[in-house]
């Protein structure tokens, strides 16, 4: 192109020489010739620049499709060095960012273990591409009590424990299988960890390692001088017996872990056919529970609380029952825990609230001067609109507030915070009574207990069960009763099964009792017939 431009300029010089000997017309010819020359030169220069821009655009387009490795074309470097340097810097930064994102996706940022996606990818490759001389095993580990650590010590302490747990898991695997083990350890979610062993025969090996993990997690964690104990529940499943795919294997190990947790926590469970059958029955019960709420298959029974000083029944505890169409009458132990886990406790709780409010309103109009107490679960109280729903139920049925008593467990009362505390104070101001249920089974802070918005304490049956036969049991029970009386709180003793228990407790200073010795829970019609207007002597008969 340069030669062509030079030739054009040379031709223009010849024309200029000829034009010098011409008149004005010659001058015009000269101007026209020179205009053509420069226009053609400009065209060739622009064409060259456009080719360079095309090269740069093609490289940028390749980058847009993910190619950040190829170099910037030499022609761009030669003609536009600043642009070339800027493009190379952009590609380098983008590569570094993508590498960082990939690293974050593959590694858990808190523990340094494989992330969930990385763990699954690695296990999928191991399941698909390796010959096995024996079975593989999947461990599913859930930390026990980890939420309490976050709630009490903060999330920074929780992260520190997760990091320490990861370290202990690595140590166990290294000690049991050697540093060269091909086991994959991952943080699956939250406080859940998974370990996959591609080669782990025989079955006893898995249980031995699971127990080693359990012992490692049972050791206290030192967090800023505070000894924290958590432990873990572990489920174990074998490939291919308990799952031929990663999803099936994880599901089986997860089910085994939940069975371990429901068995008292800190347990190890191997997936089995028996467990599978129980899980199937549990799934069926959950379906039935959902249908029961739609079909109104629940009912209430009432158990009296008798005041031996006043000589009358002062309150009735409302207890839910399920009239199952095939299994008959089911007690709360058969379905309330499942309702808690599935969240159905909120809907069931609404049914109980409305039924109790309706019943209390009828009793008040009929002159039955007895409060009705109702158990409130942790899951219900955690609902932001719980107190709004309670107030609406009371308004709907015109329920006098003094006819209701809410029972909350000792552990739940100790965790009252903010709006919940204020709402309970407001209810008490209106006349609703509040009681601590199962007192003596939790870990009460005595200073906090004094300031809680409560009217009564229900002494748990476990404290009175052996008082007739054990000096130690009597001593403990007497101390608890003295504590409650010292705080100026009313009390009722649950689980009364004999006259001897009543006499001993009356000596200690108790006067209100509830239990099978006085009456089993009964339907409303039977309750009103027996206890609607009745004194203590008749209740004991």
Automatic annotation (TrEMBL):
<protein>
    <submittedName>
        <fullName>Diguanylate cyclase (GGDEF)-like protein</fullName>
    </submittedName>
</protein>
<dbReference type="InterPro" id="IPR043128">
    <property type="entry name" value="Rev_trsase/Diguanyl_cyclase"/>
</dbReference>
<dbReference type="InterPro" id="IPR052155">
    <property type="entry name" value="Biofilm_reg_signaling"/>
</dbReference>
<dbReference type="InterPro" id="IPR035919">
    <property type="entry name" value="EAL_sf"/>
</dbReference>
<dbReference type="Pfam" id="PF00990">
    <property type="entry name" value="GGDEF"/>
</dbReference>
<dbReference type="InterPro" id="IPR029787">
    <property type="entry name" value="Nucleotide_cyclase"/>
</dbReference>
<dbReference type="InterPro" id="IPR001633">
    <property type="entry name" value="EAL_dom"/>
</dbReference>
<dbReference type="InterPro" id="IPR000160">
    <property type="entry name" value="GGDEF_dom"/>
</dbReference>
<dbReference type="Pfam" id="PF00563">
    <property type="entry name" value="EAL"/>
</dbReference>
<feature type="domain" description="GGDEF">
    <location>
        <begin position="134"/>
        <end position="273"/>
    </location>
</feature>
<feature type="domain" description="EAL">
    <location>
        <begin position="282"/>
        <end position="535"/>
    </location>
</feature>
């Amino acid at each position: 192109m340069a030669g062509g431009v030079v030739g054009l300029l040379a031709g223009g010089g010849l024309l200029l020489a000829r034009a010098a000997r011409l008149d004005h017309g010659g001058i015009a010819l000269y101007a026209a010739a020179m205009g053509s020359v420069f226009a053609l030169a400009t065209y060739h220069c622009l064409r060259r620049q456009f080719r360079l821009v095309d090269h740069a655009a093609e490289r940028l387009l390749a980058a847009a499709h993910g190619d950040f490795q190829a170099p910037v074309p030499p022609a761009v470097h030669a003609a536009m060095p600043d642009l070339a340097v800027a493009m190379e810097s952009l590609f380098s930064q983008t590569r570094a960012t993508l590498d960082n994102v990939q690293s974050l996706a593959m590694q858990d940022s808190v523990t340094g273990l494989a992330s969930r996606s990385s763990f699954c990818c690695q296990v999928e490759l191991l399941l698909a591409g390796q010959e096995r001389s024996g079975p593989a095993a999947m461990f599913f580990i859930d930390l026990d009590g980890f939420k309490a650590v976050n709630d009490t010590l903060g999330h920074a302490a929780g992260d520190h424990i997760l990091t320490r747990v990861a370290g202990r898991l690595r140590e166990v695997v290294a000690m049991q299988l050697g540093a060269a083990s091909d086991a994959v350890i991952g943080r699956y979610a939250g406080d859940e960890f998974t370990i996959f062993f591609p080669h782990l025969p025989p079955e006893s090996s898995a249980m031995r390692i699971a127990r080693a993990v359990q012992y490692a997690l049972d050791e206290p964690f030192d967090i800023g001088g505070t000894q924290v104990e958590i432990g873990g529940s572990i489920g174990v499943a074998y490939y291919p017996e308990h799952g031929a795919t990663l999803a099936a294997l994880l599901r089986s190990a997860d089910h085994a872990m939940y069975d371990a947790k429901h068995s008292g926590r800190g347990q190890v469970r191997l997936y089995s056919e028996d467990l599978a059958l129980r899980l199937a029955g549990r799934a069926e019960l959950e379906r039935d529970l959902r249908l029961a709420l739609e079909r109104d298959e629940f009912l209430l029974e009432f158990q009296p609380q008798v005041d031996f000083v006043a000589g009358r029944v002062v309150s009735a505890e409302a207890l839910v029952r399920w009239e199952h169409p095939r299994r008959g009458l089911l007690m709360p132990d058969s379905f309330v825990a499942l309702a808690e886990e599935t969240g159905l406790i909120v809907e069931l709780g609404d049914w109980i609230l409305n039924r109790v409010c309706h019943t209390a309103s009828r009793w008040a109009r009929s002159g039955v001067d007895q409060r009705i107490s109702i158990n409130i679960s942790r899951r219900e109280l955690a609902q932001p609109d719980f107190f709004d729903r309670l107030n609406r139920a009371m308004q709907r049925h015109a329920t006098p507030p003094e006819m209701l008593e809410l029972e909350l467990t000792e552990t739940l009362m100790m965790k009252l915070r903010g709006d919940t505390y204020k709402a309970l104070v407001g209810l008490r101001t209106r006349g609703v009574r509040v009681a601590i249920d199962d007192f003596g089974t939790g870990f009460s802070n005595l200073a906090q207990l004094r300031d809680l918005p409560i009217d009564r304490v229900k002494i748990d049956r476990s404290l009175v069960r052996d008082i007739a036969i054990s000096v130690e049991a009597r001593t403990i029970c007497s101390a608890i009763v003295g504590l409650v009386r010292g705080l100026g709180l009313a009390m009722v003793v649950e689980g009364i099964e004999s006259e001897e228990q009543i006499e001993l407790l009356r000596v200690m200073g108790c006067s209100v009792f509830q239990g099978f010795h006085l009456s089993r829970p009964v339907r409303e019609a039977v309750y009103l017939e027996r206890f609607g207007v009745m004194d203590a002597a008749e209740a004991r008969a």
